[in-house]
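Dear H.,

Thanks for agreeing to be a second pair of eyes. The structure we're designing against is below in token form, covering all 348 positions.
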């Protein structure tokens, strides 16, 4: 009896000591008081576990936590150029977007920027849609979360389950906020065209609520059963094509086409971006592996044309892994890949 009462008191203190909205905190305190009268009831422990889990979620959400935006265009250009080769038009569009945010903030109208259409990068697999979204978050100094839509078939994945279910949890939106610990993160809605046919209509309905500024200031997650303000979240979407996206969702998006890469662009991306990053990640000493410039066309197109750079990344990773093994086995300290020996390193 005393243990149960003390545990309820701890939960009550936990609610009072966090940034929980006053109205929600008041509702939880009332529930805890009601539960204190049932300590001898067989329903006490299941209900205690349920409300304890709920309070853990409520107290872990960023009800008031923000990050400060970095709206410096020079900094933004440096980040975009560091992370991406080419993509001039897309970089310009992002810089324009940031410029509007900066002007709104200087005029004290920062909230209005979220009424702008949501950027939606549309292109084939491997053209850099996801990485561009991550670069936007890095540019702004915001935290980043990704929600994959591929194969999603139930709107409850986004909106959460009611607490009447034993294993109920919040949806992916609330989980993303918990992960980022920020009210204004960048949340990537990845591949929104790849939801299942059965769940498409209902999932598109939730997307409309997420992307519509008239609705997302009071997003209703079934588990929380309390509105959460998403108006400061910067949503970015990606899609392989727009055919399977509902008209209502498209109306709230600004589609931006991601171009396919030419061979010369892939050579630059491979040599200047992917190769140095992969070498570093593998722990290979600087200068231990060198690829002749004349070899890169064979690295870029070992099996024919590919619009994106996924194949290029896999090929480079395979080469680096082989060299890493050769270093460990003592077969050399430096390796130069030329036209004469490239077949020894390329994946079969």
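And this is the sequence the design step returned. I haven't edited it by hand at all.
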């Amino acid at each position: 009896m005393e243990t149960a009462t003390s545990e309820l008191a701890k939960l009550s203190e936990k609610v009072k000591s966090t940034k929980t909205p006053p109205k929600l905190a008041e509702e939880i305190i009332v529930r805890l008081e009601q539960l204190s009268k049932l300590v001898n009831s067989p329903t006490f422990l299941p209900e205690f576990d349920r409300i304890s889990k709920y309070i853990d979620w409520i107290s872990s959400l960023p009800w008031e936590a923000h990050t400060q935006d970095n709206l410096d265009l020079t900094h933004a250009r440096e980040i975009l150029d560091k992370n991406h080769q080419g993509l001039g038009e897309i970089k310009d569009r992002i810089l324009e977007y940031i410029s509007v945010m900066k002007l709104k903030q200087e005029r004290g109208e920062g909230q209005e920027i979220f009424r702008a259409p949501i950027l939606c990068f549309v292109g084939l697999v491997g053209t850099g849609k996801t990485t561009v979204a991550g670069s936007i978050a890095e540019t702004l100094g915001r935290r980043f979360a990704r929600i994959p839509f591929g194969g999603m078939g139930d709107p409850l994945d986004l909106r959460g389950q009611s607490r009447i279910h034993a294993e109920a949890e919040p949806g992916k939106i609330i989980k993303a906020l918990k992960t980022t610990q920020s009210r204004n993160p960048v949340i990537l809605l990845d591949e929104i065209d790849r939801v299942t046919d059965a769940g498409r209509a209902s999932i598109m309905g939730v997307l409309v609520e997420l992307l519509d500024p008239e609705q997302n200031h009071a997003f209703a997650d079934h588990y929380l059963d309390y509105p959460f303000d998403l108006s400061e979240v910067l949503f970015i979407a990606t899609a392989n094509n727009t055919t399977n996206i509902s008209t209502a969702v498209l109306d709230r998006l600004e589609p931006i086409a991601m171009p396919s890469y030419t061979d010369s662009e892939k050579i630059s991306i491979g040599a200047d971006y992917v190769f140095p990053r992969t070498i570093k990640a593998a722990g290979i000493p600087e200068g231990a592996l060198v690829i002749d410039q004349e070899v890169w066309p064979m690295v870029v197109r070992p099996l024919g044309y590919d619009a994106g750079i996924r194949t290029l990344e896999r090929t480079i990773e395979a080469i680096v892994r082989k060299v890493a093994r050769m270093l460990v086995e003592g077969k050399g300290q430096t390796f130069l890949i030329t036209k004469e020996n490239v077949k020894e390193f390329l994946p079969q």
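Two observations from my side: The longest helix spans residues 263-282. The chain has a mean pLDDT of 88.

Warmly,
E.
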